[in-house]
Amino acid sequence: MFRKKQKRILVVRTDRVGDTTYITPAIRELRRTFPDAFIATLTQPHTSKIFLNNPHINAILTDDLKKENFWKVVKEIRKYKFTHALLMFPTERAAYQLFFAGIPYRVGVGNILYEVITFMRSVSRNNYNPLRHEADYCMDLARKIGVVTDNIKLEIFVTEDEKKEAIDFLKQKGINQNDKKIFIHSGSLGSGPNWSEDKYFSLTKKLLNLLQDNSYKFIYTAIEMSEEFINKLKELNKERIKVIRDDIDDLRMMIKVISQADVFLACSTGPLHLADALERKCVGIFCRRKVSSAKHHGVLNEYSINLEVSEENCKKYCSADQNTCGIENGLSEEEVIQAILKLSERN
Prior knowledge:
2 domains; alpha/beta; Rossmann fold; about 40% helix; six-stranded parallel β-sheet
């Protein structure tokens, strides 16, 4: 049963994992501002796993983005009689779905033609000037309907049972709860500039030599690792290097496992932002370019370190137009190692 004056808010983000994680602060602040509101999310099915156990959410809706399911999603949205919809990242499909679902107050980003046609209110990113974190741009849509906050801390909720499941899973892989677990997510699926596998391999050899205590385990999770890279890693040290990518069957399992990381290393990609939201100690490596920078996509939690290509190295290694990033040489293994060591020693 729906209360007449109750705010019923749908928060929409149907793109990638890391980007979807960026809407968690807005959801929390909407709940804080409107404690009696009905708050729901609309995401892709696999990214919906980010919101399980979130106490601020009343319903989790999904859209698989298939053409034939467009009207099915509209019908599902309409059932909830939403009063407000926040389209956190512009997509034509979602803009029309929210319009046809009859939601009276809809907010999008910018003044894109399909948003104008559907009479959507908007907030401006002003061409990312001044540059802010993506989570803060997402928060602007919540601010549009009354939220007042500067708190953009990401959050994901993992139950004690889920943590125990992850501990048992890792134990089966030869990784004990008291081991110092350094996760290295070497892939990005093209979401951000990244090192080559050769450089990650060289980094691993150096870490093995520096951290000779057998309690240090190096755990690799990236699904796009090549078989050659995996075989080279295993040849280095089968007892201390663990490749677990093939045993993680969905995003929620990835979240559970990351919750056990002592240090998490990755470029700007979804798993790094999951680790940030789980308050793991992270080392993030970033390009200097505006929309790929640490300022726009960096780890937000206080336990972590963001490393970015310096201005000097950008001029030295990147193309003049900055369309080709020189992160391979612009960030050294030594910088990353020092960050990992610093976080490993920090309580």
